[in-house]
Automatic annotation (TrEMBL):
Stored SMART domains: acidPPc
Transmembrane helix as UniProt keyword: yes
Transmembrane segment boundaries: 7-25, 60-79, 86-108, 128-149, 156-178, 184-202
Top-rank taxon: Bacteria
UniProt name for this protein: Phosphatidic acid phosphatase type 2/haloperoxidase domain-containing protein
Keyword Signal attributed: no
Species per Swiss-Prot/TrEMBL record: Candidatus Enterococcus testudinis
Domain Phosphatidic acid phosphatase type 2/haloperoxidase: 86-199
């Protein structure tokens, strides 16, 4: 019960931060200029030497990559009868990353940075779809790792790698010139609020399904 409250409190904080960011983006975007310009300058200080690396990293959150990986992981869960895991991963990846994020972009219609774009993007800028998608998909896997890997070493190794990957994907979107740092922060907030607010309910559903299966 205590952990559930902690998750929900943290998730609510990230949701409120997203609402605040969205309000500023919509009505007072100039307030974010110092934050966006400073971080962009720092992240792009390695240009053009770091370009191949970040072009590679950003592909891990391209829609086609997420879709293919999602189908593979979904198949693994279904084959092993991890139905609660499959449902939770599907709701987040399809519902939040695939549907909600593109729709919420239409509310803000923020123009993308005027920097040279190293990749082609046509939608609005806020919140970053790659950031939301990576946080929801890879973040879900990070939380679900104990289901597939029982050894503590592998659990923590994979968690660290996934956490680093999520962070690098967000940074890559700024480096390639298609997002402001506040776009990435907004996308991460959307993903984190979903994960933290729904994870306790997934755990509860998983317990109920496993208990029911044992009874049968």
């Amino acid at each position: 019960m205590q952990k559930k409250l902690i998750y929900q409190y943290a998730g609510s904080c990230f949701l409120l931060l997203f609402v605040f960011l969205g309000y500023v983006v919509k009505f007072y975007p100039s307030w974010l200029n110092p934050f966006d310009e400073t971080l962009t300058r720092v992240i792009r200080s390695g240009y053009p030497m770091m370009t191949p690396f970040f072009l590679w990293v950003t592909k891990f959150a391209n829609p086609i990559t997420i879709i293919l990986l999602f189908l593979v992981v979904l198949a693994v869960f279904l084959i092993n009868k991890y139905y609660a895991e499959a449902l939770w991963l599907g709701l987040g990846t399809i519902g939040i990353a695939g549907l909600f994020n593109p729709l919420i972009k239409l509310v803000f219609l923020r123009e993308r940075p005027t920097l040279e774009h190293l990749v082609v993007e046509t939608s609005s800028s806020f919140p970053s779809g790659h950031s939301t998608g990576s946080m929801v998909f890879y973040g879900s896997l990070l939380l679900l790792i104990p289901i597939l890997f029982k050894q503590s070493f592998w659990q923590w190794t994979l968690r660290i790698l996934l956490g680093v990957l999520i962070a690098l994907i967000g940074i890559s979107r700024i480096y390639v010139g298609v997002h402001f740092p506040s776009d990435v922060l907004g996308g991460f907030c959307v993903g984190l609020s979903w994960l933290l607010l729904t994870y306790p309910y997934y755990r509860q559903k998983r317990f109920v399904w496993r208990f029911t299966r044992k009874q049968l």
